[in-house]
Amino acid sequence: MGSDAGRKIVVLRLGHRPERDKRITTHVALVARAFGASSMMLTVKDSGIEERIRKVNENFGGDFSVVFRPDWKGAIRGFDGQTVHLTMYGEKLPDAVEKLKRDGDILVIVGAEKVPADVYAMADFNVSVGNQPHSEVSALAIFLDRLLDRAWERSETSGKLRIIPSPRGKHVIGTDKEKTV
Amino acid sequence: MGSDAGRKIVVLRLGHRPERDKRITTHVALVARAFGASSMMLTVKDSGIEERIRKVNENFGGDFSVVFRPDWKGAIRGFDGQTVHLTMYGEKLPDAVEKLKRDGDILVIVGAEKVPADVYAMADFNVSVGNQPHSEVSALAIFLDRLLDRAWERSETSGKLRIIPSPRGKHVIGTDKEKTV
C-alpha cells in the first residue's frame, strides 16, 4: 500500500454518480489504495467516500487521498507522466505493461458504464484486462498488480490495526483492541 | 472464460442483499465468469443478476450460470472438492495457492461486509489477498488469476460479439452489428 518510491500512481475515476455508484467507487478507491496508488481523483464531490477512506487510513495506515477534480480533461492533459485508460476495447495488458514498465508517474483512468469517446483519444494508452466484460474494480487490481510487480504482497500496514494472516478466524492487533476470534 | 478442462471452479456469494448489493454482486458474477469459474451460487434469488449474466453469455459466449442455493452450509459441506474462503484475515495467497495447485474442483466463498463466523471453520482454507481492506471483486479476480495461471489472458470469446484489442477506439465484430468507433 502506498506508491513505490519514485513513482506515483494516480487514479482518475470518471462518471461517478453518487447515488448509484457509491459502493463501486468506494471499492475502486480501496483497490487503488491497497494495490499501490497514492490518490484518486473524482469529478464530483462525494464526502461519504472521502470519509470512508480517511477511516481506512487511520486504521490501516498510509495517506491515500480522494481529491475532487471536476475538470477531467484538464486532469488528463495536465498530468506529468503517462496516462492509461482501462477499457475492454484496449490493447492487451501484457503488451501495454511492457511499454509502460519504466520510471515515471502514471494516471490510470477508470470509467463507470459509459466513457466519453474523447477519453480514447486523450489517453496515451487504452488497455484491456481481458476482452470479456467484468468490472473496473477487478481491472484496476489486475493492472496495478502487473504494473507494480505484486508490490501489494510485500506491503506492511502502519495504522492502528494490524492483521496477522491466519488459517482460522480473525487475528487483529491494535492499539486499543486486540482480538482473536 | 469458462473453467479449465477437468477442473471446475464454483463461486459461492454469501450475504447478498438484492437492494444494496445488486451491483457489487453483479461485478462478482462477471469476474467469476471472465476469470474462469463456471457458476456462482447465490443464497437469495435475484432474477436481475441472472438476466444480466444470460445476456453477457449471449453476447460474449460461454454458459456461466447463476444458481439459487439458499442452504449455504449444505453447499459448503456437500461440495466435492476443496473450499476456499476469501477474507483479509486468512493465510497469505501465495502460500495458499501452493497448497491448492492440483486437480480437483474448487468452491470459492466470497462474503459481503459481514460473514458468519462458521464460515471460517467450515472452509478448508481461509485465504487473504493482501492484509488491507479492498473488495471481494478484486480479491476474486486476483485469486482466480493466480489459481488458474492467468487463464483469462488466453481465453477466446464465442458469443455474438468479438472485441478486437485496439490501441484506439472500439473495434467490435458481431453477427448483427460491426462497428469501429
TrEMBL record, chains A, B:
Molecular function (Gene Ontology), one example: tRNA (cytidine(56)-2'-O)-methyltransferase activity
Reaction catalysed by this enzyme: cytidine(56) in tRNA + S-adenosyl-L-methionine = 2'-O-methylcytidine(56) in tRNA + S-adenosyl-L-homocysteine + H(+)
GO CC terms, sorted: cytoplasm
UniProt KW Methyltransferase keyword: yes
Location in or out of the cell: Cytoplasm
Binding-site residues for S-adenosyl-L-methionine, renumbered to this chain: L86, G111, A112, E113, K114, V115, V129, G130, N131, Q132, P133, H134, S135, E136
E.C. code: 2.1.1.206
GO BP terms, alphabetized: tRNA nucleoside ribose methylation
Family matches, as InterPro entries: Alpha/beta_knot_MTases, tRNA_m1G_MTases_N, tRNA_mtfrase_aTrm56
Keywords tagged on the record: Cytoplasm, Methyltransferase, S-adenosyl-L-methionine, Transferase, tRNA processing
Pfam families: Trm56
CDD domains named in the record: aTrm56-like (cd18083)
Subunit details: Homodimer.
Physiological role: Specifically catalyzes the AdoMet-dependent 2'-O-ribose methylation of cytidine at position 56 in tRNAs.
The family this protein is said to belong to: Belongs to the aTrm56 family.
HAMAP family, per the entry: tRNA_methyltr_aTrm56
Identification of the protein by name: tRNA (cytidine(56)-2'-O)-methyltransferase
Annotated source species: Candidatus Sysuiplasma superficiale
